[in-house]
Write a structure and sequence with these properties.
heterodimer, A: 316 residues, alpha/beta, 8-stranded mixed β-sheet, 14 helices, 48% helix, B: 280 residues, 2-enoyl-CoA Hydratase, Chain A, domain 1, 7-stranded mixed β-sheet, 18% strand, globular
């Protein structure tokens, strides 16, 4: 049984527990039929709940503490992963991880924001909030990939760039701007995958690429719904409305062409089955990598620029 | 009894109010000096006493920096289309309508070509009065087109930023304007056209974290607040008091993120000098 259960998951989890208990009893009692019935009911319930999730519920799934994080995916998707540390300028930022690994026999550079699972590891990872040295570390690794002509895959999962005193002293804004700029012209294919939270510039700082993929239950926007609520409504109590208004889910973003593809999650969300979530993503990544490899790099860069130039809606 | 005699002068309260006569007079927001409008204009909207730089808009910069009648505005009437149908305590559509009426501006940046002491430039000037100078689709698109113009004409690009960052009411579309503008800047760089970024009070968030910080030359006005996270957010997140002078232009110069600080009265001459240095 999962340790953390979201409010709207409760009815499903309760039924699942019941089934588990009944299965134990079925060794002595003939209740196969009833179990089957309940399992069908679970499936129906899951479908009805998950097809009608509100934006705020999706935000909650995206933040689920048992959700697979960057390293969970890397471990399952790649072989021969070698983690590389540091920005060669200041220090190693633990909120971002990266290194070479192989997907389907091909070497790629993997870079992603990394959250922790408990208080101790979250402090170590700074809750996935990068400092300037993190963005510079990511850029160093992407430049390394460029030098040896390896595609880059980035994983976005951050509540935002770290808003700290030292972060400002070391140029948080410059570090993010530099990355966005450099990623716009990096001469290797880049695939971006939003695997959890995509909060604003902190996410986009490793989020420019040729293909933008987004897992089904993630959010990506200019601001977190709570902060948006506190600024526009002048109260923390309107986070549900803010989440809805911001149009921050994968279904919304694909309509605006901000993302290219929604990556399906296992039933009940990626946190319910890490293996399956990783397998689905792996298959899609292989497909996308093969597609991108066919395009000449100059053409790819032109398409990359055009893709972002087309984002935005104005009237003239 | 000597004890009761006050020997020291009274502590002066900074909040002491001075009466402002109507019409031609303005009060300095920092030192409370009463300044005549003519005098303020002569001083490029800075306080003659304490050098405080007033938060001015595009109209004033056009007047201060550009040769008379040289400004040719581009995309003047481009407006937000409210793609999200955004509603908070007020409809975004209504908010835009109101602010257009109130300011006479169509969005938070004006772009165009002009001359500075005879040098042709492409210039973009942000207006804080328009929803906090926030960057949504219109700002991103206008800046991207200004950069394009700069590439085509080879005129140096000048962007004067004064902005709270990306505009919330256009969600992720606003965020993508960072990528759009930075993407265009890579092409400007390839074309070897100089870009001068002028950062004014205040410039934060997505604006700093995109074109703001990417000038070939980054100039700041004295005392300007420039950063990524705003001071309130940092205080809340860290629970720490912020050191004096934190995130000011002077602080950023010391930390190595801007090239120079320039008084607004000297900005026109400084830009002329820099453009001439690039050209000669």
């Amino acid at each position: 049984m999962p340790k953390v259960v979201l409010e709207f998951e409760k009815p499903i989890i309760e039924l699942e527990q019941k089934v588990a208990e009944m299965k134990k009893l079925s060794e002595t009692l003939d209740i196969e039929e009833e179990i089957k019935g309940l399992e069908e009911k679970i499936q129906q319930l899951q479908e009805s709940i998950y097809s009608n999730l509100s934006a705020w519920q999706i935000v909650q799934i995206a933040r689920h503490p048992e959700r697979p994080y960057t390293l969970d995916y890397i471990q399952r998707i790649t072989t021969d992963f070698v983690e590389l540390y540091g920005d060669r300028l200041f220090r190693d930022d633990k909120a971002v991880v990266g290194g070479f690994g192989k997907i389907n026999g091909q070497t790629v550079m993997l870079v992603g924001q990394q959250k922790g699972r408990d208080t101790k590891s979250n402090l170590y990872r700074n809750f996935g909030m990068m400092n300037p040295e993190g963005y510079r570390k990511a850029l160093r690794l992407m430049k390394l990939a460029e030098k040896f002509n390896k595609p880059v895959i980035t994983f976005l999962d951050t509540p935002g760039a770290y808003p700290g005193i030292e972060a400002e002293e070391r140029g948080q804004a410059e570090a993010i701007a530099r990355n966005i700029y450099e990623m716009s012209k990096l001469r290797v294919p880049i695939i971006v995958v939003i695997i959890g939270e995509g909060a604003s510039g902190g996410a986009l700082g490793i989020g420019v690429g040729d293909r933008i993929l987004m897992l089904e239950y993630c959010w990506y926007s200019v601001i977190a719904p709570e902060s948006c609520s506190s600024i526009l409504w002048r109260s923390w109590d309107y986070k549900e409305q803010a989440a809805e208004a911001l149009k921050l889910t994968a279904k919304d973003l694909i309509k605006f062409n901000i993302i290219d593809r929604i990556v399906p999650e296992p039933k009940g969300g990626a946190h319910r089955n890490h293996e399956q979530a990783a397998q689905i993503l792996k298959d899609i990544l292989i497909e996308e990598l093969n597609e991108l490899k066919k395009i000449k790099i100059d053409k790819l860069l032109e398409l990359r620029l055009k893709k972002f130039l087309n984002m935005g809606v104005v009237t003239e | 009894m000597a004890w009761f005699k006050r020997t020291k002068s009274n502590i002066e309260s900074s909040t002491q109010k001075k009466e402002i006569p109507d019409g031609m007079w303005t009060k300095c927001e920092k030192c409370n000096e009463i300044i005549h409008k003519k005098q303020l204009e002569q001083h490029a909207y800075t306080c003659p006493k304490c050098n405080y730089h007033f938060r001015i808009g595009s109209a004033e910069y056009i007047q201060i920096l550009l040769d008379e009648k040289s400004f040719r505005e581009m995309d003047k009437k481009m407006m937000s289309a409210d793609p999200l149908n955004f509603v908070d305590t007020k409809e975004y559509k209504k908010r835009i309508k109101d602010v257009i009426k109130q300011t006479g501006l169509y969005d938070a940046v004006r772009t165009g070509t002009g001359k500075i002491n005879g040098h042709n430039v492409v210039i973009a000037i942000m207006d804080f009065a328009f929803i906090g100078g926030s960057m949504g689709s219109v700002v991103g698109e206008k800046i991207a087109r200004a950069i394009h113009k700069s590439i085509k004409t080879k005129y140096p690009l000048i962007i004067i930023s004064r902005s709270g960052g990306a505009r919330m009411m256009e969600g992720a579309l606003s965020l993508m304007q960072l990528a759009k503008t930075c993407g265009m800047l890579t092409r400007l760089s390839e074309a070897k056209v100089p870009y001068i970024s002028v950062l004014t009070d205040p410039t934060t968030g997505g604006t700093t974290a995109s074109y703001g910080m990417l000038g070939d030359i980054n100039i700041a006005e004295p005392g300007a607040l420039i950063g990524f996270a705003g001071p309130r957010v940092i205080r809340q997140a860290t629970g720490k008091d912020l050191p004096p002078g934190f995130q000011t232009a002077e602080f950023l110069l010391e930390k190595g993120f801007i090239d120079l600080i320039c008084h607004r009265k000297e900005l026109r001459e400084k830009l002329t000098q820099l453009i001439d240095l690039f050209k000669s």
